[in-house]
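To: structure subgroup
Subject: Chain for Friday's discussion

All,

I'm putting the inputs and outputs inline so they're searchable in the archive.
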Amino acid sequence: MSSTVKIRLEPLGESFEVPRGGALRDVLFAYGVEFPCGGHGKCRKCRVKVLEGSLEPAGDEAEILTAEEIADGWRLACRMAATADMTLEIGQWETAILADDTSFSFSPRQGHGVAVDIGTTTLVAQLLDLETGHVLGVRSALNPQTVHGGDIMSRVEHALQPEGAATLTREIRESVGALIGELGLAAGLTEVVLVGNTVMHHLFCGIDVEPLSRYPFETGEGGLRTFRASELAWNLPSNPVVQFLPCLGGFVGSDILAGIMASGFESTSEITALLDLGTNGEIVVGNRNRIVCASTAAGPAFEGGEISSGMRAATGAIAAATVKGGALSFEVLGGEVSPRGICGSGLVDVIAGGLDLGLIEPNGRFAGGRKQLLLAGSVRLLQKDIRELQLAKGAVAAGVRLLLKQRGARQQDVRYVYLAGAFGNYVNRESARRIGILDFPAKRIHPSGNTALLGAKLALFRTEPEGRGFNEIRERITHVSLAADPEFQDTFVDSLAFPPVDGG
């Protein structure tokens, strides 16, 4: 018997050999199969279909998959071992990764630099000519740590296991180093600037994340970190300086500091807000005189997590919905493909449309005794899905209200609202207002793309001593712990319901 087995993936048309009996999880991750729960068999999002070959279900798969799914060949990739040659159908083979092409003012300097946004899910690196400001190259990839879980708390949990932190640090350093190597010009590279959330900062820098696993979720180790490429085992001839920008407190990381720089908080006298809505909803309110920021546990609903048919914004995802002829009409990513699930922007549209059509009540319950809402194909909306989005939007809305109060401002005082990140870039502003995530006029709401990457590029041109002025910026920023605010729970509960029909 051969010591290897052959695996073929459809519709990719890729074939490879793996050691017989080995786990397929790490191999399939490289081809786009996701493991949001870290491979614990809880989320069902790593399903693949056995098209050819035989693969008996693992002992506990019958408790996770239905009998019909198992009979049709569906298996959980996190439970699979390479026991025989097989052909597998995998679904999540294409994902949009948000880069940045925004023009900006800068003071020219010599050399080349790389800006890197280390996201929980994706990595993006851009190579810049520091004399012209031109972007010379872009590389992107999925964060390799995703195989251990799709959200930051899964990473923290894994980091607390034996050798877990060392593994996560090695994986992210190797992946970022590989991206930079692919950009070329290694011999002339003078500097690298990295940004990311607090967990990504700590894991990349080799800092203990245990304080982030428990209340009050604070750490004193979030400052500016400086390395040489050789310290990170990056084989770059010029051995450039590598800086990971400082965090702002708790779960508000350097990606938000970069977003503050990119959004012009430093120069404006008008009250401005920045929202980065993901598993943690980071919120910033203020102007050049004083800024307050906070993180609220929005949950993964904005990214399709914990939703029965949820998925990331990848091929086959319902990404938008509109009301046409008294019914919902859907847009699916990837063109003429069958819908496989629904991502965050589509979920917001569907619930907004459901409210307008009277299918969903303002309290979040289905109207008319419904138990579910069939969308397209096998994609459906359950009562628990609506509840997940209510929890997420309630946390964000409550956070905005409390930060405005901390800043001594009112809702109508906010002149600009910048929505950062992939969800903010693609969500329909009117739908977001309809369900109560945002209570601002649509004309004041501006999708802003990858402000973290733009801010990292701006940081390459800052030449001030003492950390390039980051300390001076941070002195104007106050981190607020919403969990410690005695008003948060009541404000959160008040923010759960959807606005009535005439409130849209």
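Points worth raising on Friday:
The chain has three domains: 4-89, 112-263, 264-447+464-504.
The chain has a mean pLDDT of 87.

D.
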